[in-house]
Design brief:
The protein is an all-alpha fold and 294 residues long. It is built from 12 helices and no strands. It has helices at 2-20, 25-50, 53-68, 74-93, 96-103, 116-120, 122-136, 142-191, 197-236, 238-251, 256-265, 275-293. The two termini are 45 Å apart. The mean pLDDT is 88.
């Protein structure tokens, strides 16, 4: 919601300031079409030139996230704690054979079935399953497993961050492209130097619209959009880090409750359940799991 208010607000305040100072928007509107074609078109082409197809697709996905926000909500972090608690409890109490029933085919797992939002995220489910699968193959060195997961999390993070970086590059290019549009307008005006001052003034003012649009698009629109996407990616990255913390704590021989407590501490403050809330959720998850087994 705030992003929509901000986008509308930035146009309103600029319009009000310009109008109060006596400016006429007719001049800007008349010149905006050709100038936007030069600036926006060239900016889009720089996006295509400097990025591969997958990154361009991530840009469009990222723009949706500007308004939808991070995919993980407070209830999802609570579910993650419960899911990981049940998995590490199975690994600790029942052994790798019992754990394999859940990680080899998560879609048929009684534990994963309680958390459909995670099952819907194939990448995260695969991340959890692959790590536990390595552990069942006797890859149980906490440091090495933690290093492996850290590398995987960092790789995924950098891949998701490409959209923000690509938009930032376009935002950085817009002021210069605005100057390009303005220079083209000045060239046009110089070609008509014999015209009346009124005609020349109109041409020069139209050229300056290009400079305005380049700076405006960069610092008031595209730059903030790129920043918002980066913030969303940073926030979403807390989920795989939470999983990494719990698994490494499990491999350090912490009991499931303490391993999950280590993970809870890594959750962003606005989503973090209290210790008592977590304790109640884990007890309820254990009850539900026992009923499912029964």
């Amino acid at each position: 919601m705030w992003q929509g208010i901000g986008l509308v607000g930035v146009f309103v305040v600029v319009w009000l300031g310009y109008t109060i100072s006596g400016g006429k928007f007719g001049v800007i509107l008349q010149a905006a079409g050709p100038e936007l074609l030069v600036i926006g078109g060239a900016g889009t082409m720089t996006l295509l030139i400097s990025n591969d197809t997958s990154t361009v697709k991530k840009v469009w996905d990222g723009l949706r996230k500007v308004f939808s926000g991070p995919k993980w909500k407070k209830t999802d972090y609570a579910d993650a704690l419960c899911l990981m608690f049940l998995l590490v409890r199975v690994a600790r109490q029942e052994g790798n054979v019992a754990l394999e029933r859940h990680i080899e085919n998560p879609e048929k797992s009684a534990i994963f079935a309680h958390y459909p939002h995670f099952l819907a995220d194939k990448d995260l489910t695969a991340f959890i399953s692959d790590v536990f699968r390595s552990i069942t193959l006797n890859f149980t060195d906490a440091y090495k497993v933690g290093e492996m997961m850290e590398t995987e999390v960092a790789k995924r993070y950098q891949e998701q961050l490409r959209a923000a970086k690509a938009l930032s590059t376009v935002a950085d290019a817009f002021p210069a492209l605005g100057i390009v549009a303005a220079v083209l307008g000045i060239i046009k005006a110089m070609g008509a130097i014999s015209e009346s001052p009124q005609v020349l003034g109109h041409m020069i003012s139209s050229a300056l619209v290009g400079t305005f649009l380049g700076v405006f698009l960069s610092y008031a629109l595209v730059g903030p959009l790129a920043g918002r996407i980066r913030n969303v990616v940073d926030e979403e990255n807390a989920m795989p880090n939470l999983i990494r913390q719990i698994i490494t704590s499990h491999l350090d021989n912490l009991v499931p409750q303490l391993a999950v407590e280590v993970g809870r501490k890594s959750i962003p403050s606005k989503f973090q359940p209290s210790f008592n809330e977590m304790d109640g959720m884990l007890k309820e998850a254990a009850k539900v799991a026992r009923k499912g087994e029964g």
